Amino acid sequence: DKCALAENFGKIAKKYRIPIQTCGDNDFTDCGIKRAGCVTLEMLGKANKCVFREMRHNGNRRGCLCIESRDLGWYDSCPGGCRYCYANKDAALVRENAAKHDPASPLLIGRPEEGDELIGGVQRSFLGESGRQLSLFD
């Protein structure tokens, strides 16, 4: 089914000259579908007018060509109410979790409890030598 779908997508994309790509371990290049990451440094660099250093990407799962990323958030916690959001499934739980948010806490929801261990993630900048990216005010 995947191959048939990919073939049809590839034909439609070719007919209408629409570039099409996929990410992950499926290779549909024979259908005219380019393998690419969903989120790449090239893509982010163009969008933010900056240059990133050359680096190897491990992706987020097998076959993934994206840059490594860290999830920031908590399911059923954002009160934004976006209709397309995959992270909110239960409106009542969203309200409950949002009420637990404490801006003074190092956690998104609640506060650390006795016995909890907070482990800081190792984050390194991907920026190249210029070290500059587009500002909100540029």
From the structure above, extract its key features:
138 residues, two-stranded parallel ribbon, mainly alpha, 2 strands
Q: How would you sum up this structure in a few lines?
A:
This protein has 3 helices and 2 strands, in the order H-E-E-H-H. By secondary structure, it is an all-alpha fold.
Strand content: under 5%
Low-confidence residue ranges: none
Number of strands: 2
State the end-to-end distance: 47 Å
Largest sheet: 2 strands, parallel
Envelope shape: extended
The H-and-E topology, N to C, reads as HEEHH
Count of helices? 3
Helix content percent band = 10-25%
Rg, alpha carbons: 20 Å
Which structural class fits the helix and strand makeup?
mainly alpha
Widest sheet, order of strands: 1-2
> What value does the average pLDDT take?
84
What does this structure look like?
A two-stranded parallel ribbon has the order 1-2. 4% of the residues are buried. With 138 residues, it is mainly α. The longest helix has 14 residues, at 2-15. It has helices at residues 2-15, 41-48, 91-99, and strands spanning 21-22, 34-35. The protein is built from 3 helices and 2 strands.
What's the SSE blueprint?
Layout: H1 2-15, E1 21-22, E2 34-35, H2 41-48, H3 91-99
Parallel strand pairs: 1-2
